[in-house]
Amino acid sequence: MPSSPGPRFGPLVAGAAGVAAREVTFVWRPEAPTDDEVLLVLAGVTDPTALDPVLLRRDGDEWTCTLLLPDDLVAGYGFASAPRIPRDAGDDFFAWVGVLQSAVPDPAVGERIPDQLGGTASVLRMPGSRCHPAERADAAPLRRFATTALDLGDDGVATVLVPDTAARRLLILFDAENQRQLPVEADLARHPFGDTSVLLLPSGDPYRRFRTLPDRGAVAAWTDRAITAGQRAGALPHDLSPADVTAAGQSYGALAAAGLVVDGRARAAILQSGSFEQRADTPAGEEADRPGDLVEALATTRLDARLVVQHGTLEPHASRLAAQFAAAARGAGAAVTARAYRGGHDYAWWRTGLLDALDALSPADPAAR
User: Fold this and answer.
1) 3-state DSSP call for residue 123?
2) Which of 22, 59, 115, 302 is the most buried (most CB within 10 A)?
3) pLDDT tens digit string along 194-212?
4) How far is CA 44 from CA 16, 73, 121, 246, in A?
5) Model confidence, pTM
């Protein structure tokens, strides 16, 4: 668990110019004695890096690692252990994925989030990190949701959250499997974003996700089926127009959400750490020598849309892509709000960023906020 400063100083792993840093000691106490090596996996900080600074040192019955971290960092983390952790694991994609998949959350920390590989991580919140008021468990709920499940056959089971007020708008969230591990329903119940239903779309296993979410045609057809099913079930209004729809997603989900706007199915989108490099003619995981398909499409598209584009300061690739996409979207006529958060490719700040983005997209009338 993270604790107060220990007796020794660690390296400045994730410092930033002009940002205060604090010393943090991570402590791992195994359930049974072990001689395994233990590695700290901290999103954005060890994704990947030289591993020696984040290998825990044995100190009696516990293992510790002390780092200097930015005071405004929020990040998911866990501990990976093995008889021998390869020091070059970060140089090989599949070896690093194996390390990440073996990580387990900190049993001493209760706040948990999903990670990108279907696992669970603990949350480190530094004192200066951003937290939206709607994340506070003691905040009063503004609405209650009724839940309707939609069986979409091969596309999985979607969920509609219907507020106890007449809903005129729709918020689409991709990666329902991960969203449901977060307190998304409670967060949205406490957020003053108005009379809006929420459609949680499942993305399936990672292989289906990687195959489907970059495919604009597949995403459009899949979303249409889900909305039609929701309307037939009486959970969604029949007179929805694109102006009533906001799409939101992270990583590949951000790419899918942006595609719904470009294809005219939504008028607003919340795009977090978007995978905007994706090209149909480039295999997944390989760098293309041109901008992604969606970015190129914006050169010949006019967008009457509002977009919130977010990235983490500790994910340089996504930061570059976010700037590239935002510039192309503005060139296409969209109103773009861009914001950076101290963190990596991580639900730890995506949760807060989603709520901040809903603030940015809320009506100008203060009473509606």
Assistant:
1) strand
2) 115
3) 889 999 999 877 778 888 8
4) 13, 10, 13, 28
5) 0.91
